[in-house]
């Protein structure tokens, strides 16, 4: 339980680390941020497949494949519904490109809300990984999510400061989005620990949400500013790094 709590704090704290970097480095180039985010996408892609989806098939027994497919689509549809209820995340990232002095505060706050809502299923994915009893795989999943949270925390800062939000309130907003992930991690862990029956579906559901985030949010964002080739190779590096770690950790 101690490891779960520390990991939850680490995953959520990654957003705060990104926010601090955003405060210190306000003129980060799009090329650099796209490369970092794409690397994180590769890590998350590998974590979703190796740490969640394949184990879901194993734990599901003779119905494992069917349960996994249903779980993947359920996770994706859940985030699709979220996207309909709140503005699309990668479109809201366009706030950062607008004239900062004319940025609309409501739009910026919706941007932060969208990130917070998307953080919940990511936290669930980390928690479900621990609930499965494989700490090594769970740490890989959590590491991938944490890497993705750093650039996410970075992009929160600029639009909020430009919209007139004080530095203190901006930092607490970033902290709140990270806290959502901590809560999600604990919910995922306890839900699976209480009922192992839902483990295969929960693993696949979490994997589906991660695949959705990578495909629908991260890849389009990293390929929108002229750094497509570098972003593609960064994704491959992230994926292969997690693949190597998965093999070495057994």
Quick overview:
This protein is mainly alpha-helical and 250 residues long. It contains nine helices and no strands. About 4% of the residues have low confidence.
Structural overview:
The protein has 250 residues and is mainly alpha-helical. It contains nine helices and no strands. It has helices spanning 2-24, 30-59, 64-85, 89-92, 105-131, 135-162, 167-194, 199-222, 228-248. The longest helix is centred in the N-terminal third of the chain and has 30 residues, at 30-59. The chain starts with a helix and ends with a helix.
SSE layout and pairings?
Blueprint: H1 2-24, H2 30-59, H3 64-85, H4 89-92, H5 105-131, H6 135-162, H7 167-194, H8 199-222, H9 228-248
Strand content: under 5%
Largest sheet: none
**N-C termini distance:** 22 Å
The number of E-state strands comes to 0
Give the low-pLDDT segments. Answer: 95-104
Mean pLDDT: 77
Q: List the helices and strands in order.
A: HHHHHHHHH
Report the structural category.
mainly alpha
Helical residue percent band: over 70%
User: Given the C-alpha coordinates, what overall shape results?
Assistant: globular
Count of individual helical segments = 9
Rg (C-alpha, Å): 17 Å
Fill in the keyword field for this structure:
single chain, 250 residues, mainly alpha, 9 helices, 0% strand, globular
């Amino acid at each position: 339980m101690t490891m779960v709590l520390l990991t939850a704090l680490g995953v959520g704290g990654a957003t705060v680390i990104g926010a601090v970097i955003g405060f210190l480095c306000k003129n980060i180039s799009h090329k650099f941020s796209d490369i970092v985010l794409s690397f994180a996408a590769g890590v998350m892609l590998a974590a979703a497949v190796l740490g969640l989806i394949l184990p879901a098939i194993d734990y599901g027994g003779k119905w494992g494949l069917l349960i996994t497919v249903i779980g993947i689509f359920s996770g994706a549809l859940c985030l699709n519904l979220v996207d309909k209820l709140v503005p699309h995340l990668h479109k809201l990232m366009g706030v950062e490109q607008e004239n900062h002095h004319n940025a609309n505060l409501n739009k910026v706050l919706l941007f932060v809300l969208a990130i917070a809502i998307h953080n919940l299923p990511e936290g669930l994915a980390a928690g479900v990984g621990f609930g499965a009893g494989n700490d090594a795989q769970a740490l890989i999943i959590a590491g991938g999510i944490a890497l993705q949270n750093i650039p996410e925390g970075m992009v929160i800062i600029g639009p909020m400061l430009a919209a007139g939000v004080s530095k203190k309130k901006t930092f607490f907003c970033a902290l709140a989005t990270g806290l959502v992930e901590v809560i999600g991690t604990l919910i995922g862990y306890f839900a699976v620990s209480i009922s192992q029956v839902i483990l295969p579906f929960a693993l696949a559901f979490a994997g589906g949400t991660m695949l959705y985030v990578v495909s629908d949010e991260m890849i389009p964002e990293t390929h929108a500013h002229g750094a497509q080739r570098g972003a593609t190779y960064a994704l491959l590096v992230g994926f292969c790094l997690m693949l190597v770690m998965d093999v070495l950790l057994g």
